[in-house]
Amino acid sequence: MTDVTLTRDGHVAVIELCRGPNNFVDIAAISALGDAYDAADADRDVRAIVLCSEGKHFCAGANLAERAKDDSDSITQEAGRHLYQEAHRLVGNAKPVVAAVQGAAVGAGLGLALTADFRVGSGASRLSANFARQGYHPGFGTTYTLPRVVGEQKAAWMFMTGERVPGEEALTIGLLDRLVQPEDVRATALEMAREIAISGPLAVQGVRRTLRMGFLDGFKRATYAEHFEQSLVRPTEDFKEGVRAMHERRTPVFKGY
């Protein structure tokens, strides 16, 4: 199975995560996305990127079934460090990205959406930083990217409560840039990328560098801090309970240890 595909639409590269319906991510998926971004950057005819996913949801985060295995690599410190190293590639690319956010963008999925320059969604979109609801510390650079988009107060509320933000509110607070019908999400993202591609590509990349000055460094610093905080909660009973509860579709009962 191919985790990620890259196709061309004129000057637009369409990069699709192919793990439907939920498009859970792991190191392999993020690495494959990084490879696709590198290929798009290396192609001088590509001027913009659409990031999209097959199936019902943009990305429902990490695979809880795997994380629930105490001996799984997905919960080791080294695996977390490797995942973030791959994630750095998604914010260090040169060309603008428009994300087509259908359905859920949750946890790491929200982090993935926030690496894009623009996001398109619908009334069916749901965006959530649900880490603390699992007894876990936020990750994927969201402690840097989310406050930049929605402000520190709203970001803190989303982090501490795991609030699910519907598409309409996401548009209002800046999490989404366009709100369309569910069936039009990808087409609208492609239209936006085509519009960007009309402009001078060198100028667009220069604008992006200026606007994102320090973005990669800030993202890296956030992932380093997140990884440290995650290493503190990962061995706890609260973390194990949070993962079990999510997997069993029930409310977790946290103990504080």
Element layout with pairings:
Layout: E1 4-9, E2 12-17, H1 27-42, E3 48-53, H2 64-67, H3 77-88, E4 97-100, E5 104-106, H4 108-114, E6 118-122, E7 126-128, H5 142-150, H6 152-161, E8 164-166, H7 167-173, E9 178-180, H8 185-198, H9 201-211, H10 215-233, H11 237-247
Parallel strand pairs: 2-3, 3-4, 4-6, 5-7, 6-9
Antiparallel strand pairs: 1-2, 7-8
Helix pairs in contact: 1-3, 3-10, 4-5, 5-6, 5-10
Structural class designation: alpha/beta
Question: CATH-wise, what's the superfamily of one domain?
Answer: 2-enoyl-CoA Hydratase, Chain A, domain 1
Q: Order of strands across the widest beta sheet?
A: 1-2-3-4-6-9
Instruction: Using the coordinates above, name the CATH class of one domain.
Output: Alpha Beta
Determine the CATH topology of one domain.
2-enoyl-CoA Hydratase, Chain A, domain 1
Family: Belongs to the enoyl-CoA hydratase/isomerase family.
Protein name: Enoyl-CoA hydratase/carnithine racemase
GO molecular function: catalytic activity
Pfam families: ECH_1
